[in-house]
Amino acid sequence: MTKDIGLAHVRAIAPYVGGRPISEVAREFGLDETKIVKLASNENPLGMPESAKKAMALAIADLGRYPDSNGFELKNALAKKFAVPFEWITLGNGSNDILELTARAVAKEGDEVIFSKHAFAVYPLATQAVGAKAIEVPAKEYGHDLDAMLAAVTSATRLIFVANPNNPTGTYLNRALLKTMLDKLRGRNIIVLLDYAYREYARATDLPGPMEFYRDYPNLIVTGTFSKIYGLAGLRIGYIVAHPDVLKKVGKYGDTISPSQTALAAAKASLGDEEFMKMTREKNAIARKVLTD
Ligand SMILES: *Cc1c(COP(=O)(O)O)cnc(C)c1O
């Protein structure tokens, strides 16, 4: 009896396995936690900025209440930073949350979702969770092959995930390539989700600005996260920028599970902490050189 509980396509999902916690590895091998360096999940090894800790400590006083489901202050800060209208922003409990909500809002059984091989591990999971068919397109030099991805589009395609830069391979798509893709999909009932989780680390000058395309392509969704350069992975907070008509679909779920006050406050502080961002970027550049050398 119990084996029939739940939807078959959901039962078939092998859950995302994240990097193992340091404490677990220390226990298993009898090691000192302070001697272990975790690289698996690309968290910010500097931790969260002091400014975010302070803001979070203040926000604790308010935790007996439900959070502001509109996330007014953080959305306002994002709107200012990216020069996008407030109505074009929605928040989520991490950007994974947003990827899943988007799949849920636009794809169902019988629909197709396209992503590249060697792209972010959550794309196939989000697709499977809604019973849609995953179309994994072979990669080109470990990066997205946009021509091949376009060639995979059918009348059943509803969503295309693009990680830029990509995790885990570190490749990226430049402005011209992305624009060509978006132009070719213009007017189609297909959402292109541009996942910018690592945007802030990238140094390439031909990478489009974070919000360069959003106004021109109503079927484009841009997602960002506070988990990587902003150092707040454990708080679970991310955001989405898209045309308000698209947000009306995706945001329907988002409003009921808005991030906590502590996450909202820390994210706002972290977003405004240019110094921390700069330090993270610099230290990362040094470590990148050490690694590649
Ligand atoms: C880390 C990551 C995310 C999601 O991170 P959240 O912690 O859920 O915000 C999304 N996309 C990519 C490419 C990532 O590397």
Notes on the structure:
Helix 4 runs parallel beside helix 10 (261-271). The mean pLDDT is 91. The protein has 293 residues and is of the alpha/beta class. It is globular. The chain has a seven-stranded mixed beta sheet, sandwiched between helices. The chain starts with 7 loop residues before the first helix and ends with a helix. 37% of the residues are buried. It has helices at 8-11, 22-29, 50-59, 72-82, 95-106, 122-129, 146-151, 175-184, 244-254, 261-271, 274-292; strands spanning 89-92, 112-116, 133-137, 157-163, 191-195, 220-225, 238-242. The longest helix has 19 residues, at 274-292. Strand 4 (157-163), helix 8 and strand 5 (191-195) form a beta-alpha-beta unit. The structure holds pyridoxal-5'-phosphate.
Distance between the termini: 57 Å
What are the distinct ligands in this entry? pyridoxal-5'-phosphate
Number of helices: 11
Query: Given the C-alpha coordinates, what overall shape results?
Result: globular
Rg from Cα: 19 Å
Q: pLDDT below 50 for ≥5 consecutive residues: which ranges? A: none
Output the structural class.
Answer: alpha/beta
Number of strands: 7
Order of helices and strands: HHHHEHEHEHEHEEEHHH
Mean pLDDT: 91
Portion in beta strands: 5-15%
Q: How are the strands ordered across the major sheet?
A: 1-7-6-5-4-2-3
Which percent bin holds the helix content?
Answer: 25-40%
Main beta sheet: strand number and arrangement? Answer: 7 strands, mixed
